[in-house]
């Protein structure tokens, strides 16, 4: 741990550490996380103080069955040791607040609510929410999550997270034609969007406890999200190469085209809104670039990724995880800086045990190299 803290300190004090995606050199614009760690005006929980160091957030490492923090600041960060919770995690969905998560745990048939600041001592079992959901959606601020169970075409929503979680009894979606392609849920948990497609055509449906109705026709919607604390939403149609804005989904539900193929949208597979709802970020798998759409002016910027990205998962503020192959450096999209950039976190290093590599500790004694012995000249 002492070595890890020392390394973080060196990285944070090093003005020319080449962590830019394009190996740029020069002074990094490091950002303080003080403002991010304080409760905001809307009462969002504070980001946990990981080991006393600034943190970008948590990521789930499937191979290790554990959560792992990214320590440091965007542009000068590295992975910390996995969080020892005393349980094996099958799947985990971390809130954008970075203070709690919902998780599937080995040998449990129910989803658990984990407080990432207090550990398993305060873990709660959501007895009405089973494991095995085929698709999960996290609301923009993490106060609600939606779980879709394909086997019985049922949707359940957990609202009031994390302090007062309530699990809905479930909504039957069997009457909706086709297969579910994408899912989104509002922060208040009162509305969900479900995009269904039959391969040729599809539609986006509003799903509430009172109704299920079409609010937009579409082709192949790969990603949707509500805006923060809002009933406006955006969705990306990979078949039409379009991104559209839905205004007032529980009311008039008007549809507005934001950006299309002629302006650089190419097979969009993920999208997110900015924390202030002023921008929308679109991951284009066709061009491997992130497009930023300014909702006020319509101005577009395209940022090449220089790698293979598959997700836009919010970490802290407007910093997003793009890749999750922990054998390689992990790419992040930093939209919180003055100029949005793609940066990386060095790959996860082998865990150390008693000063030796974990791989060495697993090797049989007879296969370890013997110490060198100096021969006498006598």
Question: Count of DSSP E strands?
Answer: 30
Roughly how many Å is the radius of gyration? Answer: 22 Å
Provide the number of structural domains: 3
Category from helices, strands and their pairing: mainly beta
| Poorly predicted regions | 7-51, 352-378
Shape: globular
At the fold tier of CATH, the topology name of the largest domain is: Methylamine Dehydrogenase, Chain H
Q: What is the name of the CATH class of the largest domain?
A: Mainly Beta
Query: Approximately how much helix is present in the residues?
Result: under 10%
The N- and C-terminal alpha carbons lie at a distance of: 47 Å
* Most strands sheet: 5 strands, antiparallel
Mean pLDDT: 83
**Per CATH, which architecture of the largest domain?**
7 Propeller
The helix tally amounts to 3
Question: What is the H level of CATH, i.e. the homologous superfamily of the largest domain?
Answer: YVTN repeat-like/Quinoprotein amine dehydrogenase
